[in-house]
Write a structure and sequence with these properties.
Radius of gyration: 52 Å
Strand order of the largest sheet: 1-2-4-3
Number of domains: 2
Strand content: 15-25%
Number of strands: 4
C-alpha cells in the first residue's frame, strides 16, 4: 500500500523546515504590521497635535499683530498729542511775553505820560506817546530800563513839543529791543 503524507513532515516525523519558516515569516510580518500600525497611529496623532499647536500659535501671532498695530496707533497718537502739547506750551510762552510787557509798561508809566501806540515786532519794540514834561519821558525810560522785561538799549528816538487841546505837550517815540525773556528774567530774580 502506498502512504501519502499530507503533513509537512520529514521521514522521521518531524515538521519540515518550511512550516517553521512560514510561521516565523507570518509572525514577523504580523509584528511588523502591528509596529507599523502603532507608529502610524502615533504619527497621525502627533501630526494632529502639531497642526492644532500650529493653529494655536497662528492665533497667538494674529492677536500679537493686532496688539502691535494698536501699540503703533497709540504711539502715533502719543506723538501727535506731544506735538500739540508742545505747540500749546510755545503759545503760552509767547502769550506770557506781551502780558508781562504791558503790565510792566503800565507800572512804569508816570502820571503825566500817556501812550498812543505800543508795537512789538519780534524783539523790536516801539512806544509812542505824549507827556507834559520832558522829565516825565526820561523817568519813564529809566523805569523801563530797570525792568527785567526790557533791555538797557531803550532810547528816545524822537521828542517834539506840540499843542494838543490848548496844552503844550511833548510827543515822543521810544525804540529798543526786548531781551531774551529767560535771561533777563533770571537776572531780575537774582537781583
Amino acid at each position: 500500500m502506498i502512504h501519502i503524507n499530507l503533513l509537512l513532515t520529514d521521514r522521521h516525523g518531524h515538521a519540515g523546515p518550511d512550516l517553521r519558516h512560514l510561521a516565523l515569516a507570518v509572525g514577523g510580518i504580523s509584528v511588523l504590521l502591528v509596529v507599523l500600525v502603532v507608529v502610524g497611529v502615533h504619527y497621525v496623532s502627533t501630526m494632529s497635535d502639531l497642526r492644532a499647536e500650529e493653529r494655536r500659535q497662528e492665533e497667538i501671532l494674529r492677536k500679537q499683530k493686532q496688539q502691535l498695530a494698536e501699540i503703533d496707533k497709540f504711539k502715533a497718537e502719543k506723538r501727535e498729542y506731544e506735538e500739540k502739547i508742545a505747540v500749546i506750551d510755545r503759545l503760552k510762552e509767547r502769550q506770557q511775553g506781551p502780558v508781562h510787557i504791558l503790565d510792566e509798561v503800565s507800572r512804569s508809566l508816570p502820571d503825566k505820560v500817556w501812550l498812543t501806540a505800543l508795537e512789538q515786532k519780534g524783539s523790536a519794540l516801539t512806544i509812542k506817546g505824549n507827556a507834559l514834561t520832558i522829565g516825565d519821558i526820561v523817568a519813564f525810560v529809566g523805569r523801563l530800563k530797570g525792568s527785567k522785561y526790557f533791555s538797557n538799549e531803550l532810547e528816545i528816538k524822537e521828542s517834539s513839543q506840540v499843542k494838543i487841546a490848548e496844552q503844550e505837550v511833548y510827543q515822543f517815540t521810544i525804540v529798543g529791543t526786548l531781551p531774551d525773556g529767560s535771561k533777563k528774567a533770571d537776572q531780575g530774580k537774582a537781583s
